């Protein structure tokens, strides 16, 4: 069986998922407020913006960057493409994180850079856990019958360091021994491919069954 899951729209009334003040801010300022709430917590398009919102709240409290922001950092989307570089930065002085912030006209000390990396890690770890919760909820019954292969696309799974491991670790925690029967396969994004495959399979099935009487 093939299931094409469009789970980004889960929780349309915004009453189930564990939203923070930063999620609410992002939602209000997004192009489509109150649409795709789950996607806004796990998608690369939004994770950098959540991180930016957290950082700016700490700037306002004078807990980071000596309380100074910049015109560049104040722009929505300023960190959208930077999280993979920040998360992959394992240098002693966090030089890559420093470079990212310098491009936004932010001067930092090591503690600032460490805070930025920690915030980024926490936001992405939450995304991995929420993704695992969605997968586990869908598979909780079917896994007792047979192993399952899951095709996953998107830049978060493909490009973010350790995201796959975090996802698998969370699945193991949520599903216990059943997690060993889950296989994750990376499918590089192709909009409409899943729907096209399902349509083709349905057409082939109808040909095999013959005309309805």
Automatic annotation (TrEMBL):
Single GO term (MF): fructokinase activity
Domain Hexokinase C-terminal: 1-201
Pathway(s) per entry: Carbohydrate degradation; glycolysis; D-glyceraldehyde 3-phosphate and glycerone phosphate from D-glucose: step 1/4; Carbohydrate metabolism; hexose metabolism
Top-level taxon in the UniProt lineage: Eukaryota
Entry-linked Pfam families: Hexokinase_2 (PF03727)
Gene3D superfamilies to which the protein is assigned, alphabetical: 3.40.367.20
BP GO terms, sorted: glucose metabolic process; glycolytic process; intracellular glucose homeostasis
Assigned GO CC terms: cytosol; mitochondrion
Catalyzed reactions: a D-hexose + ATP = a D-hexose 6-phosphate + ADP + H(+)
Keywords: ATP-binding, Glycolysis, Kinase, Nucleotide-binding, Transferase
Protein EC: 2.7.1.-
Family affiliation: Belongs to the hexokinase family.
PANTHER family: HEXOKINASE, HEXOKINASE TYPE 1-RELATED
UniProt name for this protein: Phosphotransferase
């Amino acid at each position: 069986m093939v299931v094409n899951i469009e789970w980004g729209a889960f929780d349309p009334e915004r009453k189930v998922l564990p939203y923070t003040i930063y999620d609410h801010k992002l939602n209000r300022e997004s192009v489509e407020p109150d649409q795709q709430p789950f996607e806004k917590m796990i998608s690369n398009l939004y994770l950098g913006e959540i991180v930016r919102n957290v950082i700016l709240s700490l700037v306002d409290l004078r807990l980071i960057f000596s309380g100074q922001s910049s015109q560049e950092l104040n722009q929505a989307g300023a960190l959208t493409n930077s999280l993979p570089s920040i998360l992959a930065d394992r240098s002693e002085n966090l030089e890559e994180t420093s470079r990212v912030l310098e491009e936004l006209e932010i001067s930092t000390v090591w503690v600032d850079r460490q805070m930025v990396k920690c915030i980024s890690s926490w936001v992405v770890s939450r995304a991995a856990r929420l993704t695992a919760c969605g997968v586990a909820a869908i598979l909780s019954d079917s896994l007792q019958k047979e192993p399952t292969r899951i095709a996953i696309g998107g830049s978060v799974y493909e490009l973010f360091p350790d995201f796959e491991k975090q996802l698998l670790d969370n699945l193991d925690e949520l599903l216990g021994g059943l997690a060993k029967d889950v296989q994750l396969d990376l499918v590089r994004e192709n909009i409409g491919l899943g729907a096209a495959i399902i349509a083709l399979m349905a057409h082939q099935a109808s040909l095999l069954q013959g005309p309805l009487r």
